[in-house]
Model the fold of this input.
Amino acid sequence: MYCYYYYYYYYYYYYYYYYYYYYYYYYYYYYYYYYYYYFFYYYYYYYYYYYYYYYFYYYYYYYYYYYYYYYYYYYYYYYFYYYYYYYYYYYYFYYYYYYYCYYYYYYYYYYYYYYYYYYYYYYYYYYYY
Done:
């Protein structure tokens, strides 16, 4: 019963964190995707209407462009870092408790049959003698 509840909550938290990271990943992906194109159209709008500020907006856009990619890859780095870190400990504890429960039930049934035959031995012993 202990192992049953352990595996139940183990898979529950496994899928919880899996969808959590999945949601977090797409949230930030579309978030920066949206602001990247928003700024892109914003830049060209002012470029056509204020031509004499062309160089200013050009460098401003250039700066934003590299800042965006820097932050984007920075986010991906930490995202995959925690993702694989989580999976490492997930499989580690999974196999740990898997072998723990395996040997637990193994010795449980071993002593069960041991006392079972011990009981019948004394039963027939006193029965015939």
In short: The chain has a mean pLDDT of 74. The chain has one domain: 2-128.
